[in-house]
Design a protein that fits this description.
The protein is α+β, with helices and mostly antiparallel strands. The protein folds into two domains: 188 residues, no CATH class; 90 residues, Chitinase A, domain 3 (Roll), CATH 3.10.50.40. It contains 13 helices and ten strands. Strands 4, 5, 6, 7 and 8 form a five-stranded antiparallel beta sheet that branches. Helix 1 packs antiparallel against helix 2, helix 2 runs antiparallel to helix 3 and helix 2 crosses helix 7. It starts with a helix and ends in a 5-residue tail after the last strand. 16% of the residues are buried.
Length: 337
Amino acid sequence: MKRFFAFTLCFALIVLAGVVHATQQEESIVAVVNDEVITVEQFLARVLPKYTDISRTMQDIDPLFAEILLESEHGEKLFEEYERRVLEDMVDRLLLIQYAREIGIGADWQFIREQIDKSIHDTLEELEISYGEANAYYMLRGYIGGLETYADVVVWDLIYSDVRSKLQARVIQDVSVSDEEILQYYEENSDRFVAEAEKVRLKIMTFRTFSEAYEKWRTASRHPEPIKVFSESEGGYIERDFSLEDIRELNPDLVRLVFRETSGELVQSVVPFGDGYAIIYMVAYTPARMLTLEEATKEITAEILPLKRQTAWEEWKERVFEEFKENSLIEIYPVGE
């Protein structure tokens, strides 16, 4: 336990040492985005819980890796890159919220906060956990301000998710699938729209030995109406429809023999069948029935529309959002510099 505590403390000190300089320089600010600030406290609420989770397991999993991460230049660079990306993501999220606000899309921060506070209160009450205990737990998890900091993170995540969802809905609201696109997709993927799979109806007479099967096959092959040999057989036979998959399971070599556009024909050889042999009469072949364009339209639309909506959203981010970002006033104060 002492070893774990020392490792966790060392880990936290490394991170905190990196933010002291930025805190002193910019009065606890790590970024300014169009006159709105991202504070050191908000930033640490994102990174310290992750560091804490890592510190809980890393020493036991691989002490050497822990040593490299904590004491080497490579580890320091890894921290710096991770923190840079976290801050970049926080800036982008704030920018998106700002853009949405400009076009009339927002979230009720107070309502969301009240709901989160109520949820926390009800959960603690149900589990009979005191506020002080919960506060200490979240501080140990890496949330410097304890439960309050954790709640702030949850609220901001919910606000971002709500705003992003509303904004995305507006961006893609006019995206649709044209008749031409449906037709093109139908023609290029016609084999996917099978209403009923192809099948073949067979009469099959089975035997224990090849000689028995061959004798019956020779009789049938010489008969003007081979089907009557099956009907007159004392041993009986089976007759039913078989799918392509059925035949493959019975004998893959049968596929080329029976799945043909023909009917009323004796298979021209004795075939291995299960533990014995069989002679087969092809009663009828039914080709697959394809869905008509009208029948397939709903399925095609369901396939294409989500892709078109995702494409529209990605294009909007590359074109509109990036332009908004380029025209925004963004000042970054990297943690640790």
